[in-house]
Amino acid sequence: MNLQRVARTWWPLAFSWLLMGAELPALSAVVARLPDPRINLAAYGGVVFPLALIIESPIIMLLAASTALSKDTASYRKIWKFMMIAGASLTALHILIAWTPLYYVVVEGILGAPKAIVEPARIGLKIMLPWTWTIAYRRFNQGVMIRFGHSRSVGAGTVVRLAAGLTVLFVGLAIGTLPGIVVATTAVAAGVTSEAIFAGRVVRPVLRNELAAAPPVEPPLTYNAFFAFYIPLVLTALLGLIAQPIGSAALSRMPEPISSLAVWPVVTGLVFMVRGLGIAFNEVVVALLDEEDARPALRRFTLILIAGTSAALFLLAATPLSDFWFATVSALPPDLAALAGIAIWFALPLPALSTLQSWFQGQLLHARRTRGITESVVIFLVVIAVILTAGVLWGGMIGLYVGMVAMVLSMAAQTAWLGLRAARLDRDGAK
């Protein structure tokens, strides 16, 4: 295997992640130009998005699971059944939270969200109802595409998603009077639904031709084997995403809570666009490690990706591009743009950490040693919770900055643990 082979598999996935990463900055830029931008940005970034992520956490790792396990028709059918049951169950949970008094228990009692954003956020959460089931369906089918060498279709699906979302955003911007939270969440719901429909259509030839012709896996995949593989991934996703509402709750209790909650999605959205290039590498490692001489090429590509993504974020932080992005593109008021311009410097290590995590985690997924991934996320959660708690008790720094420091240090601890677990694979003889 050579670097060209790795790059051919990686770039469509990276393109897909880049486009997905562009979604949040686009949302923020439009909401910032609609009435009450501070309130609506805070409602989306501080309540709606974290809660939606928590609800979907049991299915967020379906992409990795489907890529690793959808090797024959029988395996595909078992995972499909799980996906449908999980999607329906989690959608029911979404309804329970958004439409019953449980919402106030979660948002006011647990998150401690500022009063001004509680009701706008509830409207947005209701609109986001299609989110979980459509993402489960899409990620499951995308895993099959990646498994059989059709990663370009994943990128095409993201183009469909972004086009649908941007259409809604531009209509909302043209109207100009709709609440930003309504425009943003409608755009997200339209985007994920469109991408799911697209994924369901383009996967059909793969199922009919390549999956159907694949030899049966020996031994056959059983539900016991699937859950032994998948449950640690679910715990990983759940524990990792718990950091979102923990972060929102902490920022709500530190200095300048509404400003911090409003700027948080803008900064993390920009950083995620760069980090996504490294996150996309996870499925590449899982898919290619079976091939001859894969490790040296994948290791070299890891180093190239670390250097490239780190340099890209540094240029964004150190040049006038930062002011242009936050003040002009994102349309933040001057005080919020200044907060964002400082916060971006704290995030500089994140692209390198994301790439390293994909390299280590991909090896563990390929070897079906998913317990180490769960352990790493527990470490991440403990570190971020300790730092955020210390920030709340201290009360001497703006919550936005404390949140960025907590994110970097907790991801560094998580990456170190993943590295130790991946190194153990060679000692244990896992290939």
Show the helix and strand layout.
Blueprint: H1 3-31, H2 37-56, H3 62-69, H4 73-99, H5 102-110, H6 115-127, H7 131-147, H8 151-175, H9 180-213, H10 223-251, H11 257-279, H12 281-288, H13 294-318, H14 321-329, H15 334-346, H16 350-366, H17 371-394, H18 399-428
Terminal Cα span: 16 Å
Encode the helix/strand succession as letters.
HHHHHHHHHHHHHHHHHH
Looking at the structure, what is the overall shape?
globular
Number of domains: 1
- Uncertain ranges: none
Question: Measured on Cα atoms, how large is the radius of gyration?
Answer: 21 Å
What structural class do the secondary elements suggest? mainly alpha
DSSP helix fraction: over 70%
Mean pLDDT: 90
Q: Got a strand count? A: 0
Sheet of most strands: none
Strand composition percent: under 5%
- What quaternary form is this? single chain
What's a quick, concise take on this entry?
With 431 residues, the chain is mainly α. The chain has 18 helices and no strands.
Describe this structure as you would to a colleague.
With 431 residues, this protein is mainly α. It has one domain (3-428). The chain is 84% helix and 0% strand. It is globular. The mean pLDDT is 90.
Can you give keywords for this protein?
single chain, 431 residues, mainly alpha, 18 helices
